[in-house]
Write a structure and sequence with these properties.
- This protein is mostly helical.
- The chain has one domain: Methane Monooxygenase Hydroxylase, Chain G, domain 1 (Up-down Bundle).
- The chain contains five helices and two strands; from the N terminus they run ααααββα.
- The chain has helices spanning about 1-55, 60-110, 115-155, 165-175, 190-195, and strands spanning about 185, 190.
- Strands 1-2 form a two-stranded antiparallel ribbon.
- It is elongated and about 80 Å long.
- It starts with a helix and ends with a helix.
- The mean pLDDT is about 85.
Length: about 200
């Protein structure tokens, strides 16, 4: 019976680790895809800057950029909607596991069970902390990429443009102030600040 229990628990842990790895990999893939789209938009703003300096610029280029920017924002909102509840469950689960590991660590120190139990607990704690760091890193990376659109828009030579074209840039900058983020249950942003707290 004990052997069957050990096999069942081992299989459960292996399946759990595989599921969490696939889920985190999916989140990272979506965030990297979205950041690639943001990089494309920023590159097009740099191209617009070169065309403005050569006086070969037309307004339809802004329309394409606005459309791409709206797609990036809606894709970010879809990612947020998809992973908000999953992120909340991961934060709650990780908090409970960290509390239990702290309890096991205190019991191990009190009962003087040896170095092996302390090392095993610390390795489990580091694995959980690494998972939290990866989720928070993806949220922070997405947020910083969202800010780069406003920066790229501001760095275009808007002062050399006609006023009707420079007004379009103001709307793009205002729209890019909307923060791209991954949250846990729409309660807290997954960022480095969340990781440290």
């Amino acid at each position: 019976m004990v052997e069957f229990l050990v096999i069942a628990v081992s299989l459960h842990v292996i399946l759990h680790v595989c599921m969490i790895s696939i889920l985190n990999g999916f989140i990272f893939t979506l965030v990297l895809h979205l950041s690639g789209q943001v990089d494309i938009i920023c590159q097009e703003f740099e191209n617009i800057s070169k065309h403005i300096l050569l006086h070969r610029f037309s307004i339809p280029s802004f329309g394409i950029l606005i459309e791409k920017h709206n797609k990036v924002i809606s894709f970010s909102e879809n990612i947020e909607q998809l992973f908000s509840f999953i992120g909340l469950m991961q934060v709650v689960w990780i908090t409970l596991v960290i509390c239990c590991l702290g309890f096991v660590l205190i019991i191990s120190i009190h009962n003087k069970t040896g170095v092996f139990a302390l090392v095993k607990t610390m390795i489990a704690y580091l694995a959980i902390a690494m998972e939290v760091f990866m989720i928070c890193f993806s949220g922070e990376y997405l947020s910083s990429k969202g800010k780069s659109i406003a920066r790229a828009t501001y760095e275009t030579p808007w002062y050399d443009m006609p006023s009707n074209q420079s007004k379009i840039l103001i709307f793009i900058m205002m729209r890019s102030q909307k923060r791209l983020a991954i949250t846990a249950g729409k309660m807290m942003d997954m960022s480095f600040e969340t990781f440290t707290s």
